[in-house]
Amino acid sequence: MPANEYGPLIKPINRILVLVLLALISGCSSIDYREGPIAGLDRMTVEEHYVDGAELYNRCSRCGHLGLELPVACTCINFRLNRAVIWLPHDASQATIEHERAHGRGYDHPNGELRSRYAAWREFVDKSIGLASRPKMLPESGLTRVSDSQ
Length: 150
Ligand SMILES: [Zn+2]
Hints:
alpha+beta
């Protein structure tokens, strides 16, 4: 058996480990309160669920591509329905709970990811209004996710 028989198998696994570490390091842990809530997302209907780790991953995956992130928690926001669904583990810290609730009130991370996604969706909707007779051009579901890994 050649010494490098397992090379192709081991290399992708190492790559996955590196990516997971990067995701953990680069994960957000702060809310930008200076900018205030995003206009249009400041009066959402909010639901809050406490689930186990596997279901947390599953639920957070459903409202956006999760890749290799290991979420501590996430908030799935449906722009069209103006609705936020918060997914938390049973042992969520008070800080994590407050963080996700802030997303539910329309607050963003300092990097402005939610604000820019919402702006892009609004622009898409505004353009689509003029094309209402073409069903294919109607807005997408408006679903997005704010994911938090630490
Ligand atoms: Zn967050």
